[in-house]
Structures are given as C-alpha cells and as structure tokens.
C-alpha cells in the first residue's frame, strides 16, 4: 500500500535527504497527500464519479509526459475501468504538445499571444459525452489556461456537469498540475550532487 | 484590462459561489481563515470543501512556514514568475505585491511583469525565475542545471525545495483562478 504518492513517484526513500526536506514542511506534505486522497477517494460520486476522476487523471498525467506519473495513473484507470485504458491512451497521443500557450484577450498582451493545439476528443463515442467534455476542458487547463472563458464552463454544463462538479473537476486537473511538477522537481533535486546542507 | 499590474484588481466568478448563509461548519473549516467567507473565489471553491481545505493547508505551509528555507520574498517571486509565464494576471498582481513588499524591490518585480520572465534580473532572482519557468513548462523542463544555478546563487537544499514547491503550487492556483472567473478592474478584491 502506498502511504505517500509524491514520495512514491519521486523516489523519496525513508530517512533520505529528500525525506528530511519534506519533513520541514509537514503540513504541505500531509495535505498534498490529503488532496490526493479526497480527490480519488471522495465521500460521494454524485458530482464526479470515480471512473471520471481516474480517466481525467490518466489523461492529464499522460499529457505531462512524466513516465512514472503517467504510468501510475494509467494503472489506476486500467484497474477501475479497463475498457477506457486504450481510448485514453489514444486521446493522450492526440493531445500531447508543449505549453503553456494561448491567445490573450487583453489587447495589451496581444504581442505575447501564442497559438497552439486546440484539442478535441477523438473518440467521444467511446468516452461518452461527459468525459469527452471533461477531457477538452482538462486540455485547455493544462496547456492554454490563459484562454479559459465562461464558454468553456458552459460547454461542460451542456455535457451534464453540475456547478459543483465543475469545481471538483477543475481542482482535480489543477492539483495534478501541481503534483506532477513537485514530483519532477524533487526527483531532480534528489538526483543532483549535494551542495550546502538544508 | 491593460496587461500585468501590481495594482489591486478584483476577481469575478463565472459560476455561482455558495452564499454565506449556506455555509456549514465543514465549509468554515475548509476556508481555514474565516475572513475568506467574504471572497467569491473561496466561496466558489467551498462547493467541494474537502479539497479546498487540503489545498489551503498545502498553500499556507509552502508560503508561510518560517522554519528556514527560502525567504518569503523569493517564494512570492516564484509565485509571480509562474503566474506571469502561465498568464494569470490576477494571481500575478497579488503575488507581485507580496514580492515587492517583502523584497523592497518593486522596480525589479515590475520589470518581471512588464517584460516577462526573461527580463534582466540579478543572478539570484534569475536562478529562481528560470527554475519557476522550467517547472511551469509542460512537460516540465526543470533539470540538474537549474538546481546547480540555484545552489550557485546561494540557496541551500531547503530553499531550493521551497522554490520548487512555490512554483508547483502556483501551477495549481493559476489554473483555478484562470478557469473559474476573471479579473475585475471595477472592484478591489
């Protein structure tokens, strides 16, 4: 059983320098894990089902291209909803790019606008209406959050997402954007020749 | 709107937040600080109180824990650089003010806002901004060279860990702020 997902994915061994560093920020350590727990073991599936959570997580983790993180969430989905494993991998392949990018609405920032892929679900028939809309929104949040607009939320609502469900979906994608970066950063720090002590 | 700013701007949700009268004890616990019951952003996030609570405790320890590590000014610098790179004008305004306040270097912060993450900075800020920017890329571009630059700039490993945490956390915060509402220059927030 995994006690701490970030430790697991970043390769933080007990009593290692990284383990001691993480202990210096005990609330961040505890609540980063609690965030994972409440998102993936919710009290209720009324707003967002477990399958939806794991499918979106597998998609988002895959888009970030961090192999251990992507494999971890792909494995969760394969266990919970094996029929979605392959379609989600196909969506990841269709959605992969580099970011962040996007067009600013603010005229003062137009010079920094940067066009890129506007992903649409390839196999909406296999994902279903709700999940296809969730993937399109997740891709927007991962790669071009500066383009977020109320119309994107309306598209989720049209696909059957409640207001509270949209909040949870947004937290899920945003949390994963944090978790994958913290894992990547800690892994690099742990692998780098030691400088001054903490 | 007129680009990135250190001015106080408001934030207006695109979805309906909870009303204060709907708040239960669980919601107040999730808000952590009761004053946040006046914020439409936190009242919207309170629709899922368990993740709001965990998010807020994570945030607070990354930015407010004073047991060594990176000075607050530079945790705020990492938050500002991340927000600048992602494109979150509201987040950048709040954390640029904090960075200016704690560093007493408002002109350097303003240059980051005006010219972006590649604007000239001194060596230590350059290393922190570059690390934040590399962590904000998707896929992440953060590598051993960033750790080496941070160490060369005088950061110990706890300070480097704090910089990583601050940049990673703002990849969370930016995506909520950008996707659930918009800056509102009519109100202060």
From TrEMBL, chain A:
Top-level taxonomic group: Bacteria
Protein name, per record: CMD domain protein
TrEMBL record, chain B:
Domain Carboxymuconolactone decarboxylase-like: 49-130
Pfam families: CMD
Gene Ontology MF terms in the entry: peroxiredoxin activity
Superkingdom field: Bacteria
Organism of this sequence: Nonomuraea glycinis
UniProt name for this protein: Alkyl hydroperoxide reductase AhpD
Cited InterPro entries: AhpD-like (IPR029032), AhpD_Avi7169 (IPR023923), AhpD_core (IPR004675), CMD-like (IPR003779), Uncharacterised_peroxidase-rel (IPR010195)
Lineage: Bacteria, Bacillati, Actinomycetota, Actinomycetes, Streptosporangiales
UniProt cross-references to Gene3D superfamilies, sorted A to Z: AhpD-like
Annotated transmembrane regions: none
């Amino acid at each position: 059983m995994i006690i701490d997902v970030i430790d697991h994915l970043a390769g933080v061994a007990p009593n290692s320098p990284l383990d001691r560093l993480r202990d210096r920020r005990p609330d961040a350590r505890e609540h980063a894990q609690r965030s994972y727990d409440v998102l993936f073991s919710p009290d209720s599936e009324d707003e967002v089902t477990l399958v939806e959570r794991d499918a979106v997580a597998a998609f988002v983790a895959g888009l970030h291209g961090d192999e251990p993180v992507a494999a971890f969430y792909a494995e969760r989905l394969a266990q919970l909803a094996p029929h979605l494993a392959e379609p989600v991998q196909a969506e990841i392949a269709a959605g992969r790019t580099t970011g962040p990018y996007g067009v600013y609405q603010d005229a003062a920032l137009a010079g920094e606008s940067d066009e890129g892929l506007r992903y649409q679900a390839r196999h909406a028939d296999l994902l279903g209406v709700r999940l296809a809309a969730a993937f399109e929104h997740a891709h927007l949040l991962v790669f071009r959050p500066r383009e977020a607009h109320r119309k994107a939320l309306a598209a989720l609502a049209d696909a059957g997402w409640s207001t509270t469900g949209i909040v949870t979906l947004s937290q899920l994608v945003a949390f994963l954007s944090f978790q994958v970066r913290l894992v990547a950063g800690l892994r690099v720090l742990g692998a780098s020749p030691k400088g001054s002590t903490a | 709107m007129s680009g990135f700013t250190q001015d106080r701007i408001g934030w207006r949700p695109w979805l309906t937040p909870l009303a204060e009268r709907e708040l239960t004890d669980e919601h107040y616990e999730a808000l952590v600080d009761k004053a946040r019951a006046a914020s439409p952003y936190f009242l919207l996030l309170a629709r899922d109180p368990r993740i709001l609570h965990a998010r807020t405790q994570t945030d607070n320890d990354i930015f407010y824990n004073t047991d060594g590590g990176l000075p607050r000014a530079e945790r705020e610098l990492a938050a500002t650089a991340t927000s600048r790179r992602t494109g979150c004008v509201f987040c950048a305004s709040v954390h640029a003010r904090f960075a200016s306040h704690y560093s007493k270097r408002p002109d350097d912060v303003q240059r980051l806002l005006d010219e972006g993450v590649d604007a000239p900075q001194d060596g230590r800020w350059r290393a922190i901004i570059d690390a934040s920017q590399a962590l904000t890329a998707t896929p992440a571009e953060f590598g051993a060279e960033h750790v080496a630059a941070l160490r060369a700039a005088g950061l110990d490993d706890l300070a480097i860990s704090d910089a990583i945490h601050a940049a990673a956390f703002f990849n969370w915060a930016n995506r909520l702020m950008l996707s659930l509402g918009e800056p509102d220059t009519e109100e202060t927030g």
